[in-house]
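Researcher: I'd like a candidate sequence for this fold, 700 residues long. If you have to choose between options at a position, lean toward the conservative one.
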């Protein structure tokens, strides 16, 4: 069923549809059928997402308004209007989120024997514990900052929790001061286990001892606040003599960028609030009052505490990859066939094992790898270091501009260089986002090449939380392409015509548009074309326009878009054959999958790129075909399940709102099916196939 709304704009708002996605995350925190600790984790993720949204997207919108950019010049909606709508939506979401914590999560915690205590709830023993803790460990770290008339306002670090304090002293004018909470100290402190798990938030401990920081003064008023600063900075890597130094400058800027949001306790007095608004030069609409604790993203770590007795999600541990032999047998296995890995349902262990074996194998001559986001204690980096120490030619392309991971990547780059790895930083003006590993080995018959390409990062931690796909292969054509790819991104090599891959920014956009155009050409009323794609975001308007054209030609289009989506589906005469869904579940949907019916000779692709201008025009990306028929069929099967989900999936309506589609079908939860199938495959049995009905066309 479609709606004809000719008066509606051609595109949806990128910012507002992203907020719709984060609203879905909040829905999971509110869902009573979700285990309690999972609900708490989702609530923490909601706040973490919102922080990044303000730092980057809201900051960018504000800068556009201040710069007087004419939206008509680029065919966009009115930026000031969007910024206003974003503010209204964020205020509403914040109220719902904090209310969820206060009225749902906390009471449920208490029923499970978990208590977050106010000062008056502490027993004498617990109070003595917090008093001693403050004196021994917290007080030495705190540094009050006086706010003096006529002097610059003290610098408040991005996201730091601070107390704003009004002080009185007999015979003197009222004074104002700030106290920043120590960022290196845990946000929650366990004070006892009498009758359950008993915790106190760090700010409540400090609040009760503020007077000790100001002897001779009376604390008249104290309110906790938090500032979000503009963090949308980029290095000028075409001019910087040392990219590492340029990255460090970005990190300094991010800590002290312009304020864009003030969060403050709902109980804060007007005097404190107005003074902070003036100090940070914000409008009242940028002030977010919270009727509960600020910055609830600490719940992400809190929910991981293994000792808590509250209900948590059942363990879905990664399963062994079927037919993957142990030990060094992996070389022969990959030489004989391709392996399609589906993480985190299937283990990332074969990738790590291949890299570790390559580091020690005397027959391995060279290793080349792109590193975008790595784990804090990365086994991948350690394997590359070991390989270099063993005399192998190791090349690592480290992306220093991976947002919010710049510092970690800069440190890894120094370590790799010290170990003898040739470290390169990609192409000037472009961020390298591709996920690729190439190993060159001398075999019995000569030089052999082994490759791993994927949709996710070489990060052993996030691979357990993100849903991604990857391919282990020795395919001659793909490995030849990867050899040429590394020559392009590490030297002055001109790209040759690719045999299999498509690379951004050198032709990936053209490749996608030609695939959509081919689907239009091959579509008939009797055999309509079919495009199915899964990605994190769809905001590239030339791609959207091509999809609109395909829809008008009768091509059926199914899109699984996790976050921002500017395509407006279901408009008669424009997009009536297009269906857009979004899935939010316990694993972050991160894979990029593209399938084209191609007149019955279906082609499927995986890759690192979303359909966004930055991915297609300003990043180094890779997309590659799945050529083995069995693996291509498996990719199609995965898409079947994703589009059949009627439990965690929501459908994007023509008005840009995500809504739950009513269905009479048996409940289908895609991620649960994927894990059950992975377990069945690991045990050598067939999974239950009657759990869902594949949807090969848009539902009526």
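Model: Candidate sequence:
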């Amino acid at each position: 069923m479609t709606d004809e709304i000719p008066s509606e704009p051609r595109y949806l708002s990128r910012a507002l549809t992203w907020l719709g996605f984060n609203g879905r995350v909040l829905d999971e925190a509110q869902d009573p059928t979700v285990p309690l600790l999972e609900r708490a984790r989702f609530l923490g993720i909601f706040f973490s997402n919102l922080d990044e949204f303000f730092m980057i997207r809201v900051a960018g919108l504000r800068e556009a308004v201040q710069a007087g950019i004419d939206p008509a010049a680029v065919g966009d909606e009115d930026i000031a209007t969007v910024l206003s709508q974003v503010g209204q939506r964020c205020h509403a979401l914040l109220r719902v989120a904090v209310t969820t914590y206060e009225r749902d999560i906390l009471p449920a915690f208490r029923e499970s024997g978990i208590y977050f205590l106010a000062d008056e709830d502490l027993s004498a023993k617990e109070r003595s514990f917090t008093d001693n803790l403050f004196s021994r460990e917290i007080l030495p770290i705190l540094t009050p900052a006086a706010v003096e008339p006529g002097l610059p306002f003290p610098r408040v670090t991005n996201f730091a929790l601070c107390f704003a304090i009004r002080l009185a002293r007999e015979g003197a004018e009222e004074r104002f001061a700030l106290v920043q909470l120590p960022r290196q100290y845990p946000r929650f402190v366990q004070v006892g286990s009498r009758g359950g798990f008993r915790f106190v938030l760090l700010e409540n401990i400090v609040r009760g001892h503020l007077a000790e920081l100001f002897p001779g003064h009376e604390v008249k008023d104290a309110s906790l606040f938090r500032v979000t600063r503009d963090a949308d900075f980029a290095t000028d890597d075409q001019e910087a003599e040392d990219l590492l130094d340029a990255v460090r400058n970005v990190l300094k800027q991010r800590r002290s960028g312009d304020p864009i949001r003030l969060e403050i306790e709902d109980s804060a007095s007007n005097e404190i609030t107005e003074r902070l608004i003036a100090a940070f030069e914000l409008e009242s609409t940028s002030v977010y009052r919270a009727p509960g604790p600020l910055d609830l993203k600490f719940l992400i770590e809190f929910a991981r505490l293994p000792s808590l007795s509250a209900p948590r999600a059942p363990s879905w541990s990664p399963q062994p990859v079927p037919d993957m032999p142990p030990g060094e047998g992996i070389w022969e296995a990959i030489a004989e066939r391709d392996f399609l890995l589906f993480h985190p349902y299937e283990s990332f262990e074969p990738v790590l094992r291949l890299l570790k074996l390559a580091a020690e194998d005397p027959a391995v001559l060279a290793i080349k790898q792109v590193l975008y986001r790595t784990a804090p204690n990365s086994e991948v980096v350690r394997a590359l270091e070991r390989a270099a120490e063993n005399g192998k030619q190791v090349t690592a392309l480290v992306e220093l501009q991976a947002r919010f991971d710049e510092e970690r990547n800069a440190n890894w780059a120094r370590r790799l260089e010290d170990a003898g790895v040739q470290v390169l930083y990609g192409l000037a003006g472009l961020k390298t986002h591709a996920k690729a590993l190439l190993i060159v080995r001398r075999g019995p018959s000569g030089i052999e090449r082994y490759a791993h390409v994927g949709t996710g990062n070489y990060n052993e931690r996030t691979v357990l939380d993100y849903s991604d796909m990857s391919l282990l292969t020795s395919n001659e054509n793909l490995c030849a392409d990867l050899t040429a790819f590394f020559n392009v991104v590490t030297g002055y090599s001109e790209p040759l015509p690719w045999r299999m891959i498509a690379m951004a920014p050198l032709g990936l956009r053209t490749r996608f548009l030609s695939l959509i155009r081919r689907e239009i050409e091959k579509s008939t009323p009797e055999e309509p074309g079919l495009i199915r794609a899964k990605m994190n975001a769809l905001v590239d308007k030339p791609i959207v326009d091509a999809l609109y054209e395909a829809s008008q030609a009768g091509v059926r289009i199914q899109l699984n878009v996790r976050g921002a989506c500017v395509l407006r589906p279901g408009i008669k005469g424009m997009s009536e054959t297009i269906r857009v869904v979004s899935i939010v579940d316990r694993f972050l949907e991160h894979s990029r999958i593209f399938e084209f019916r191609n007149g019955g000779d279906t082609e499927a692709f995986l890759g690192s790129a979303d359909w966004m201008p930055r991915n297609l025009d300003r990043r180094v990306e890779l997309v590659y075909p799945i050529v083995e028929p069995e693996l291509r069929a498996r990719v199609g099967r995965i898409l079947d399940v994703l589009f059949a989900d009627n439990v965690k999936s929501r459908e994007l309506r023509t008005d840009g709102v995500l809504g739950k589609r009513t269905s009479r079908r048996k409940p289908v939860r895609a991620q649960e099916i994927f894990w059950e199938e992975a377990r069945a495959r690991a045990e050598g049995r067939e999974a239950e196939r009657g759990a869902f009905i594949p949807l090969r066309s848009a539902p009526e």
